[in-house]
Fold each of these.
Amino acid sequence: MAQEKAKNHNLKAVPSLTDATTPLVLDEESSECPKCFNSGLEVLPEGARPCSCRKLKSREKTLKSVRLPKHYGSVSFDSYKPRTQLQAAAKKWAANFATEYPAVNYGILLMGSVGVGKTHLAVAMLKKLSERGIPCMFYEFSSLLKKIQDSYNPTTQASELSVLSPVLNTPVLVLDELGSSKPTNWVLDTLALIINSRYNEDKFTICTTNYFDNRPTDREDTLEDRVGVRVRSRLHEMCRTIILDGTDYRKKIDQSLQRY
Ligand SMILES: [Zn+2]
């Protein structure tokens, strides 16, 4: 296509820049690309090539529709370095889901304490899936609940369907930090609605959680305490539970920094 265009303009096509990290700053105000003036084709003395802004824009567009927070920009499977056997196994399961979907049987529930890389793997899965053109969506559990709550309309006594509908219908949903909200009746009912609806429609769900099925100490909640019996049992049917062990790598970094 770019080559055809170049021919029409009597220009020779030159190879595109393969380095996706080429520094290219889009002017936010006008959002006009200084290289191609939004034509998508960069004209050089020796010919023309697809402008690197196209890749950048399509990546931005994808991240926006997937709702990935910007600070996960550099997260990928390659950047996940397993430090235990369970982490290596989890990476394998996650990568397998992302490449094999939709030929998979289960979603994935990544279970482990803080800082072992659950969200990293979930984000890497979403990125891989969206690169493959599969619509998917990321939500941190408590911010999803807040968004649904904020959209509540007292007149209709219902929450906006525009918030809930994509969450129910997206082919792959990541619910990050499942169980992080205090399990009030409303939270449990809303979660049950989302999970049951996705189950009935055969949609895949990927969850991460800091809570375990076994109570680590008498004072700590289990996942069932946080999401309710119904939802935990439904998740057993929908997701393969993958446990990650290890220590908090973010804490480790903090500690090593404190030495300096
Ligand atoms: Zn451009």
Amino acid sequence: MRTIFTATLLTLFLALPNLSSALEKDPQSGFIIDKDWALVKAHCTVCHSAKQVTAQRGTRQSWLEAIRWMQETQGLWRFDPATEDKILTYLAKNYPPSASHRRIPLAPSLRPVNPYAVAKKP
Ligand code: HEC
């Protein structure tokens, strides 16, 4: 009885790490293969590695904010609404917020003062 119990536990234990890798991933980029993944790969690996994307987690809103930030400051192009919707749907579904990931950003009032911003000349 005890051996069976131990064997069952051991099997469960050994199977656990495999649960996370059950999702099929593109061997080249690491993107999870799901609807519109190739579209995301095509647009989101032009300037940086796919890891910059796959290491990140977020809600649809926070993914949208990341995209807007890149559009406003990093030269990312505008998407037509249908394309943007597909990209956001893919990202929010496959890279949603998770407890074990990056904490949410500090509130502006809690962040240290940026010395360069103060010293910057007009
Ligand atoms: C035109 C160039 C360009 C394209 C295309 C681009 N990015 Fe970026 N992205 C950047 C730059 C530049 C950074 C900042 C890199 C750094 O800090 O090292 C960045 C950073 C990021 C970050 C990290 C932000 C953070 O807070 O650390 C994420 C996530 C990201 N990009 C996602 C995407 C996604 C998703 C797409 C496709 C929709 C995309 N990027 C396409 C230029 C681009």
Amino acid sequence: MLSAPECLWLCLAALILSASAEGEPGSRIKVVVLEGSDAVLPCSLSTKEKTEQKLFNWKKVDPNKQEVFRYDGGNHYNDGQDEHFRGRVSHFPLELQSGNASIIIKNTLVPDSGNYTCDLFLQKKQAFSIELVVGAAPKPLIHVLKITEDEARLKCEVRGAFPKPKVEWRDGDGNILPAEEPQVSHTGERYNITLLTTVTRTNSSLFHCVATQEEIGHVTEDKLYVAFSGAALKPFVGILNITEYRVQLRCEVRGASPKPRVEWRDSHGNILPAEQPQVSHRDGRYDITLLTTVTRTNTNIFHCVATQEEISHVTEEEIHVPDQLFESCDGVGVIVSVFASGFSVTVFASLLLFSACIKCC
Ligand SMILES: *[C@@H]1O[C@H](CO)[C@@H](O)[C@H](O)[C@H]1NC(C)=O
Ligand SMILES: *[C@@H]1O[C@H](CO)[C@@H](O)[C@H](O)[C@H]1NC(C)=O
Ligand SMILES: *[C@@H]1O[C@H](CO)[C@@H](O)[C@H](O)[C@H]1NC(C)=O
Ligand SMILES: *[C@@H]1O[C@H](CO)[C@@H](O)[C@H](O)[C@H]1NC(C)=O
Ligand SMILES: *[C@@H]1O[C@H](CO)[C@@H](O)[C@H](O)[C@H]1NC(C)=O
């Protein structure tokens, strides 16, 4: 599916292309494509005079009139063709009978951008000029650098864009937010732009970073819901199931933003193998449940750790699994208390233990 801005862009491109199909000698035509797609550079006679037996010659003006494609009465030459275009350019043989000497450049690259000339040699030479703009429109990426109770420092990065985009921070209603001076660097034609802003708590905590490239009619954005008191609360841990010599543990992190990484660790801090985390989110906040199955260790203490790197926040909870639970079911005669922080965990674990025993004893 295309997003709205992409559709808009396609429409604009189609308009530009349809306008250009009527190119007249001497007129200037602009063709806009996105990097990686194919570009048709139009060059045709309005008289529809046959060009099969004629000569036409495509060149790129900058930097030094490179040979792009050359056709001479049935043959096309690759001899003089510039290295950069090798294997990527072809013409439309069937169109020649209606005076159409257009070419197609496959798999366009940003450096293909520039002015091209198409010289058609009939009774006299006719010259066409076409400007090709190959845009690279990467999506901006938002990072949360720091977040407090009511203030967040946000970074928006656009990397490898061409032409140079205008980058803006906007709030949920589309108003432009004050931001710092953008940091702009470029490698060849491609621009990297970083834009920092500090936002405060508002009722709508949805922020957008919008990159606009007017020359190619392209708009792309990233958005982020900032949950101001979103640092993950202590995980909630408990015993989920008891089978012979193994105990299944559950860890739940609720309402965290940004999305935390959740891990089970043993008392030495080693990460324990766990099941695929179950992740759900609403309004930019995440609920994550992580299950693991443990066997007896010398401490029987296990930690669930939630890490939010973007906001340098780590929180954890531990659970002590009583040694008896690792015995085969026959050995579990009495309900022992399960240490975990929080009364409900203990009750929950005891109940489970109880039901496990009823089931298998
Ligand atoms: C010339 O041929 C190309 C490729 O088939 C086509 O896209 C274009 O519309 C043609 N131009 C005209 C004026 O017919
Ligand atoms: C192409 O030619 C036009 C008109 O001369 C000029 O304005 C434009 O900057 C040129 N484009 C490039 C990429 O050199
Ligand atoms: C721009 O970003 C790209 C991709 O991360 C990186 O490789 C390149 O070095 C950056 N260029 C500049 C000039 O910072
Ligand atoms: C949030 O909304 C409430 C009620 O609509 C309003 O009274 C309050 O001023 C708003 N706060 C901000 C920071 O916009
Ligand atoms: C506990 O584990 C046993 C054996 O793997 C399984 O049959 C049972 O359904 C599990 N009970 C719960 C509540 O997950």
Amino acid sequence: MTGACALKGAPDKEMRHMLSSILKRPTRFALVMAGALAFGVAGTALAADPVIIQMRDVPPSFYPAKVTVKVGQPVEWKNIGNTVHGATDNPGMAIQKADVTEPAGAKAFDSGFVPPGGTYTYTFNTPGVYKYICVPHEMAGMKGEIVVKK
Ligand SMILES: [Cu+2]
């Protein structure tokens, strides 16, 4: 009787051990997968390097004046001049309405005044063509265009 019980107890212990190791493995597997997934997502974000547009004083200009980016890829304006610049497609800020456009459904972006050495980053989520201006230098011809592709 006791022998049978001992035999019965042993496989039971074995089973419990096997069960727990089976249960542990998928947990570890899930952790590794989650880590790989997180790394993959981060890797994708890192892959979308920002496109840099310089804000220049002489002549007041965006360089390059026209850029093409992908949806979700950040655009970074960098004021490399000695005066204040800006970037906006807000029609309320433009002297000539034709200088600013954006695709239907897109929200206007506005850097406000970017001081010398300053930067402004914006990420476009709606594909289409954006025409924008530097508010202080619109009439000096400081205009740009961003084409956002899917
Ligand atoms: Cu400017």
